[in-house]
Amino acid sequence: MLLAAGRGERMRPLTDAAPKALLAAGGRPLVARLIERLAAEGYAELVINHAHLGAMIEAALGDGARFGVRIGYSPEQAALETAGGIANALALLGLAPFLAVNADLHTDYPFGALRSALRPDADAHLVLVDNPPHHPAGDFALAGGRVANRGAAMLTFSGIGVYRPALFAGIAPGARAPLAPLLRAAADRGGVTGERFAGRWVDVGTPERLARLDAELSGG
């Protein structure tokens, strides 16, 4: 699942005319770059949620055939936040564990490795990264492959995770719900595993970061 329903307030005024996932870096939309990476890693069925200017996403990506994938869409009248958006799309996602990725990321993470990442005793597996300058406090600690809410060395959640559908069973379709409380509760009961990724990862959350990425990918 590609999470593309956010309004992108920090990206304004760019997101006044286009959804954040369609903003371009190096001449291609961020979400298109992610889809190409997922397709190259063997993912063939994708679900994309959208809200703000969502029709533009569907028009730009279509059914996914030109990427070699099949895309289903989960529209939201107003953005339901991450957990709410996932819960709203469960009918499309099915009963098996699934990968969910923020659609405004740029990364060289090897997504194929996540097919076998979720342990039988875990509800979620998170990819964590070193804290970027704009998020110095981090989100979670990592010890022995388990994610904890507190620890000596905090890391930042990358927006890449694998989840069991049961984690979202308590959220009614169409309800707003953030992801962090679910993950923190699951971590407290030992139900979240994780890994640290030290490769290329950019949270493209502001016009300035988008401009830097665009210059990099364009060879500037």
Overview of this structure, please?
Helices cover 23% and strands 26% of the residues. The chain has helices spanning 30-40, 54-61, 81-88, 90-93, 180-188, 207-217; strands at 2-3, 24-25, 28-29, 45-50, 70-75, 98-102, 105-107, 124-129, 140-143, 146-148, 154-163, 192-197, 201-203. The protein contains 6 helices and 13 strands. The chain has a single domain (2-217), classed as Spore Coat Polysaccharide Biosynthesis Protein SpsA, Chain A (Alpha-Beta Complex). 40% of the residues are buried. Strands 1, 4, 5, 6, 8, 9, 10, 11 and 12 form a 9-stranded mixed beta sheet that branches. By secondary structure, it is of the alpha/beta class.
Concise summary:
The protein is of the alpha/beta class.
Features:
220 residues, Spore Coat Polysaccharide Biosynthesis Protein SpsA, Chain A, two-stranded antiparallel ribbon, 6 helices, alpha/beta, single chain
Distance between the termini: 32 Å
How much strand? 25-35%
Got a strand count? 13
Radius of gyration: 17 Å
Low-confidence stretches: none
Share of residues in helices: 10-25%
Determine and state the CATH class: Alpha Beta
Overall spatial form: globular
Q: State the helix count.
A: 6
Biggest sheet architecture: 9 strands, mixed
Q: How many individual domains?
A: 1
Per CATH, which architecture?
Alpha-Beta Complex
**Could you state the CATH homologous superfamily?**
Spore Coat Polysaccharide Biosynthesis Protein SpsA, Chain A
Strand-helix topology:
Blueprint: E1 2-3, E2 24-25, E3 28-29, H1 30-40, E4 45-50, H2 54-61, E5 70-75, H3 81-88, H4 90-93, E6 98-102, E7 105-107, E8 124-129, E9 140-143, E10 146-148, E11 154-163, H5 180-188, E12 192-197, E13 201-203, H6 207-217
Parallel strand pairs: 1-4, 1-6, 4-5, 8-12
Antiparallel strand pairs: 2-3, 6-11, 7-13, 8-11, 9-10, 9-11
